[in-house]
Write a structure and sequence with these properties.
The chain is α+β, with helices and mostly antiparallel strands and 163 residues long. The chain has helices spanning 3-21, 24-30, 59-68, 135-138, 141-160; strands at residues 35-37, 43-50, 74-78, 81-92, 95-109, 113-125.
Length: 163
């Protein structure tokens, strides 16, 4: 086989591998319990907690808990729930790189569970203001979900305490 034919064969093999590989990042993120995709193929996250017997979710108690949470840097009322922001840090080449995560949060209850639904998720490195909605899926999804677990656990702890 001459060099030209070998190069063509190599390029063909490499390109076919790309087309058959799919998107391993999206497969990895959907393996995380609670991650979902909506009708517009945007990823979100749902965290649920068992609901203990007691009073149902009150708007006033939720407002108090939102104001008291320390797990999110920002969590404010919005038309469709709460608009929030949190951060996390990863090490890249020996240096800490902080990321900012923006999200919308909705809290709801069923007869047996309280649900925290995180949607419209964007993230960006703190020093770069070009966020895209799908970026969290391919960049540090476990860390993003970890911040959501912290926010929902903090709110749930507060909501579960008697007034």
């Amino acid at each position: 086989m001459n060099k030209k034919a070998g190069l063509v064969l190599l390029v063909g093999v490499l390109l076919s591998g790309c087309s058959m590989s799919g998107h391993p990042e999206s497969a990895a993120v959907t393996a995380i319990k609670g991650v979902y995709t909506d009708n517009s193929n945007q990823y979100g996250y749902i965290k649920s907690f068992p609901l203990s017997a007691g009073s149902p979710l009150s708007t006033e108690k939720l407002r108090q808990c939102v104001l008291a949470t320390h797990a999110a840097q920002s969590l404010v009322p919005a038309a469709d729930g709460y608009s929030g922001q949190t951060t996390y840090t990863v090490n890249r080449m020996g240096s800490p790189v902080p990321f900012v995560v923006n999200f919308t949060l909705q809290v709801s209850e069923t007869a047996s569970q309280r649900h925290y639904v995180f949607s419209r998720i964007t993230q960006t490195p703190e020093d770069d203001k070009s966020a895209t909605s799908g970026a969290w899926v391919t960049a540090n999804p476990a860390q993003v979900v970890g911040t959501f677990n912290n926010v929902s656990a903090d709110l749930n702890r507060c909501l579960s305490n008697p007034e």
